[in-house]
Hints:
Elements: E1 2-6, H1 10-21, E2 25-30, E3 44-46, E4 60-70, E5 76-86, H2 88-102, E6 105-108, E7 110-116, E8 121-126, E9 129-134, E10 137-140, H3 147-152, E11 160-169, E12 176-180, E13 190-194, E14 199-206, H4 210-218, E15 224-234, E16 243-244, E17 247-249, H5 265-281, H6 285-288, H7 290-306, H8 311-321, H9 324-332, H10 342-348
Parallel strand pairs: 1-2, 1-10, 2-6, 4-12, 10-17
Antiparallel strand pairs: 3-5, 4-5, 7-8, 8-9, 11-14, 11-15, 12-13, 13-14, 16-17
Amino acid sequence: MNVVIVGAGPSGSTVAYELAKDSHNVRVFEEHPAIGRPIACTGIVTRALFDFVERDDDYIINELEGVRITAPSGKTVDIPLKEFVICRERFDTFLAKRAIKAGAEYHTRFKFRSLDEGSKVARFSHKGKDVEVKYDILIGADGPFSAVARASGLLSRRKYYVGSQATVVGKFDPDWFLTFFGSCAPGFFAWAVPESAERVRAGVASQRHVHKYFDLLREKFSGEIVERQAGPIPIFDGAKNVQKGSIYLVGDAAGVVKNTTGGGIITGMWSAKILADCLRNNKNYSRALRPLRRELLLHWKLRNMLDKFSDYDYELLVDMMSKDSVKRILHKYPREYPSKFLWRLLLAQPRLIRFARFAI
């Protein structure tokens, strides 16, 4: 089987690795000159990552002890978590090398332009020249504004958050990442993720006015900005348009992103492994995505509730999360799998039921 994958991020390289292991002819085409660049990612992951790839200290640059959640008043609660900060350039390169070792070919500076579904030809531009590539299977792993999805008619009227982030040099607690909720980041949240005691990735996301909210966040941190990043974050809307004939979407291109956090590395790799299994065993990809969709639907419901919170509601939530039994549950279950911990949280902290009215 001749497989063409557009995009060399985590989801593209994961499906490349899985299919190359099966001795398919796998070629990955990346628009940029270097894999993993440019970076538009906070790079914080839970231990659920290791359900999909082996751990390697080369791409892990910091291990965190937990999250410090800050309510609008400045009140905080610390939740012990075991999480990891990764270098996306090293991580993406690690995954690409794994796929190459399995037999996949990688081509950089190839920008996807169009396709002919009838003759199964994908068209790219490469160093000023037009290149046509034949495929049996075409996989779009090319991010939130997927050109493959657009060319195949799979890109629905998707909505996006816009994230604005900076790397700041200063003095920070390297063991805890920070989150800020309420009117300082309406409709989402702000964050500060330490790479080390000297560097932090600070950012905010919103559907509008993101730079205004970034300026508000910037007031919380002293230090020098040494790098800026910004980019779109797709809002999960069901991820139903993921397959058309021999064309498939994975990762951000498929919109499989957690609406609570905007995280898509692990869920993207999850979708890639599902697709590989479907192609391997002649299964329906859209149907096979249901377990992932169920988890993402819970994230969607939670985000809809949080979007209705007032600053006062966030104050109450921080109080409720300070209970030790709640902290133990959040420590035990990675946030990728809310079906495993939401009901446990309600049993541990029945007062959370007061927020159920926001789900109506």
